[in-house]
Amino acid sequence: MLRILGKASSINVRKVLWTCREIGLDYAREDWGSGFAATGTPEFLAMNPNGLVPVIVDEDGPLWESNTICRYLAARHGRIDLLPTAPRARAEVEKWMDWQATDLNGAWRDAFMGLVRRHPDFQDPARIAAGTAGWNAAMAILDRRLADTGGFVAGDGFTVADVVLGLSVNRWAMTPLAGRPDLPAVAAYYDRLAERPGFREHGRNGIP
Fold this sequence. Notes:
GO terms for molecular function: transferase activity. The protein is an alpha+beta fold.
């Protein structure tokens, strides 16, 4: 059985859990990470030298990086609806997954860490304000894309790009941001995703 190493509250672990729900995969999840089993041990670092969750372990061994894991599981189980095999269609999915991991994740860090995590290193009001502005600007890019597609981020159909971006949208929606803009396409997308059991379980579930 597939093993998933990582605590269920981690946004990156939830990407994998939601993907498994979409595919219908059975798995055994083990609590690793802050507050649980330490990820700095030789045992864990042998699986992921970065010491981060999630890690999955199947018959081919361990694999890390959440977006890569989601793509791997979809491809391994032949879910071409979630990850197309045609090069251009697949690139459209992967483009938005890469954007989520780089531009969007980079935008929310200061605001989220200051406002939600209350981390002492992120309490400078100027940094929070700049982070909020950058995060909202990134979300406006997503809003324009969703207004164009009228459905999901890569087009009409739901893909693994919507798994990773759906969790990011949930984080944005749940963070108490000052001056949050009205993004109607994002709001409609959020409601559309909530029709999926996997998102209700692992995304729109009260955890930012």
